[in-house]
Amino acid sequence: MARRVDLPDEDKRKISRENFKKLLGIFRFMLPYKTFFIVGMLALFLSSSIVMIFPYITGKLVDTAVGEHNWLVNGIDQIALVMVAILLIQSTLSFTRVYMFAQVSENSMADIRKALFDKLLHIHLEFFDKRRVGELISRITNDVAFLKETFSTTLAEFFRQITIFIIGVGIIFWESAQLTLLMLSVFPVLIIVALIFGRFIRKLSTKTQDSLADANVIVEESLQAVNIVKSFTNENFENKRYSKNLIEVVRLALKTAVYRGVFFSFIIFGLFGAIVLVLWYGAGMVSDGSLSIGDLTSFIIYTMFIGASVGGLGEMYSQIQKAIGASERVLEILEEEQEGDEPNKNENIDQCQGDIEFKDVCFSYPTRKEIEVLKGINLKISNGSKIALVGHSGAGKSTIIQLLLRFYNPDSGTILLDGKDVTKLSLKNYRHHVGMVPQEVILFGGTIKENIAYGRPEADFEEIVEAARKANALQFIESFPDAFETRVGERGIKLSGGQRQRIAIARALLKDPKILVLDEATSSLDAESEMLVQEALDELMKNRTTIIIAHRLATIRKVDKIFVINDGKIEEEGLHDELAFKEEGIYSKLVKLQFDLSEN
């Protein structure tokens, strides 16, 4: 049985015309499967209608058993066979309904997941600055799973229960208007009490869920930083913190259980009390001959059907409200503007030279518009040259790289590649010419071969091997039993830091970009690994425009030019030997500071 997906009550939306349109917005994904949907709806209507014949025939079976023959079919055996035939037809229609709705929900929800993932891959980076990754993953998993349950089960059951209610009320009115009015007079009281109690219980449930969420945060933080917890021997501290939160969770859950128990006890008493009332009044009608025993029996069964449908409608209504909330969040992502080519901004550069120029570039991050990170940056990088960006943490070095990679666009000023404004170029074509080896290498959880091939997925195996050889990675790769088929683990955890760096370099080599960005790729390595990685980097930098974000100044002595960034501006530029001996210069102070630290 599929696990039911529950969303918090605060995720519910009122069912209004506007909100229902949002739910209908998801229906466009069901249009390719409309034939299955129509057949499923037809099977649902027929099965719901046929099942309503069953109580009527049951009543006729009872009448026949007591000697009253007033129906088309006489004899207990014949009526029983009719009932079996109805059950077979109803079962066949039910199977058809379930299968057809499964076809619709499974395929349409797979399409939604693909559309969401595709949108998230192409969406502007600033979108991720405003949202947590866990929240976005929840959209693809929880929200889509909830929509799947809604379209495959909840909506079908909602229509089914409405059909049963309408047909059932019509039949019992036809059988006995007096008993029907008596029965219906009890329902409003039960519904009003159920709504009041239900709202109160939902508030308590929300508090319980919030308290449990707080406890889960402790688990998440402790497991994500388990090394820190262990290094400070704070296992007992975290355990006590978690246990304290769980006590509150249990308290709220038990309080909710008490009120839920009272609520269900009242509903059971009310429903069965109504049935007893109908039986009492109906028995009087049987005794005076105005109603047969069979009609009373079928009336009671119809009453139970109607009561069950009314009881289920409230929960289904709540589920549809939550589905509207889920569809709203899904559509919010699907309607988000994505980065990519725009009209008149799709020029390609087939032969990239690698000349880069920043002209009076100013920039503030979208989430912190009040803080200007870059303040009129001007710099030129000739093709094939190697330059370094140096400065204190927060000076703006990484921001320059993010603008170069077009993760963001400048607020003002222009970035040129080979004399062309990069915002006018095809984004995909532009990024093909830029490669990066970050300080913290993130590998995907597949094989070494797959991670290197990520630089150019269409590359053949010989090209992958050659890239690994140039990156000084071939020797350690072939030392593994599975060689290139070795699985690297989540984020490359099964490899050492130096091995991960060389895989990243091989990946960049395979991509063969004209512009290369290095974010101090050797800063956290031991001496031997640093030597191997530096040799690989030297091979990678040949005939490429290279931009190095430098944290250790000893690694950039041989670059063609150093740009010193301070408070979003270029304060100094020149060669290492020129800047290192400049009195009161920022670079000179950084060199002395690192030299003093290394001496100590």
List descriptors.
600 residues, alpha/beta, 6-stranded mixed β-sheet, 4-stranded antiparallel β-sheet, 19 helices, elongated, disordered N terminus
Rg, Cα atoms, Å: 35 Å
Low-pLDDT segments: 1-5
Approximate helicity band: 55-70%
- Write down the overall mean pLDDT: 78
Task: Determine the strand fraction and express it as a percent band.
Answer: 5-15%
> What is the tally of helical segments?
19
Q: What is the oligomer described by this structure?
A: single chain
Q: Structural class, from helix and strand content?
A: alpha/beta
Head-to-tail CA distance between termini: 65 Å
**Most strands sheet:** 6 strands, mixed
How many β strands by DSSP? 10
One letter per element, helices H and strands E, the order comes to: HHHHHHHHHHEEEHEEHEHHHHEHEEEHH
Write a short abstract of this structure.
The chain is built from 19 helices and ten strands. With 600 residues, the chain is α/β, with parallel strands linked by helices. Strand 9 and strand 10 (569-574) form a beta hairpin.
